[in-house]
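Two folds, back to back.
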Amino acid sequence: MSAFAGTLDLPFYDDRHRDLAAAATAWCAERADLWEETRAAPPDKAAARLLRALGDGGWLRSADPDDGTADLRSVCVLREVMAHADDLADHTYAVQFLASLPIRRYGTAAQRERYLPAMARGDLAGAFAVSEDGAGSDVAAVALRAERTDDGGYVLDGHKTWIAQGTVADVVCVIARTGEGPGALGLTAFLVPADTPGLRAEPIDFIAPRSFARLEFTGCRVPADAVLGRPGGGFVVAMDVLEQVRMTVGAAAAGLARRALEAALEHARAREIYGGRLFDVPAVRTSLADLDVRLSAAALLVGRAAWEADRGGRGVGARSAAAKLYATEAAQEIVDGAVQVFGAAGLVPGAVTERLYRQVRSLRIYEGTSEVLRSTIADTLPRPRNKERRP
């Protein structure tokens, strides 16, 4: 789709990003059989196979602490390409990036060496666990408790839910309440191996099948060196990671939307109706034009947010929130519009638009709901200056 290529030609990106997009697109095109097979497989088996394929292809190398190429523009490029080719491939890539990012940014040398090289190879799967029944976008409401033990370790009791890759993860980054202070001040991040006694994963079914789980912690004992960052610093870890990742969700949304719009355009130009083509119907042409504009705008917001983050610009959190908000809302509209162009055929199981329709909905919820992101953006808006009162 021209919107993607045109965006890559802008100064937000350089030649290495364009080369990355071309290489990833070619790699995905050669694996159409893999996408079909994993779509038909149980979520856990599909996730394990895709993780291995991504690792073998070198696409997880951003987790390697010695790689040095984990800039967010590259991650956004890869997410858009992966989402365009196969939603499960993007999901697997994204969760591995999400799980490795806090270790890369806050881990000790020993933690980084223990986990990151294996994650980069696809030998070790990760998950990032924040959400609970009563704590989703409101990270400060986390209730899972981690009580300090006499030997300096911790015992975790409580649950996490809606955890992506939770059924296949080998290590989970968990945000728990340790009580150094109230609310956000009393949270700590932990790295918990999945085989730790007292940790149990229960699968959760989704309308778009993939690996999700509820994690139950019952007397789950971890040593002092399981702490990621510092005690009481868990809120900072969580919010920093989410602010970095949100824009990449926008990139995935653009990939799904681009695939939907391509399918709708192809169908509209081939479908004969009223003695002409569906594309010639004025209402259809207007709808497709509007959807293309939404896609272009989404791609621009994502590109700007990633560029700002990579150059260390100010206001990255708001830019990332705006990119995620607009791109995911636009993608929902674009996929819905594509279904409308196809008519009933667009909702038949196995149709590309039917699959995209199920896949796109969750993007407006995870990594910050649209409502919460609007509030985040509003908080950054400039305040008017107080006018001087005249006598």
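---
second:
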Amino acid sequence: MNCKYCQKRDYLLENEFAYAKFDTNPTTPGHMLIVPKRHVTDYNYLTEQEKEAMHQLVDMSKDALAGIYNPSDYNLSMNVCEANGQAEHLYFNLIPKYAEAQNTNTEIA
């Protein structure tokens, strides 16, 4: 199997069943991916231990991002299988949100 998420080893955080890393194409600064180490394509296929491990890493990642980027809020989403050209490996997107970006008026000429 040639899954880029199964082969990645550039973890920022990890536990026995999952890892967290910065997204290589971030939506906002600090955008992180929370990925199960076992190749899984759907949330329903995760074991209870894997689900708990992923949720623990969401909390740990939020703590790390708060100290680095100080976001005002977060979006948490899940990518499943190959929908919309995504990889065939389940992962969570943890996307920091910033208050100043919400209050910015941009003019288009």
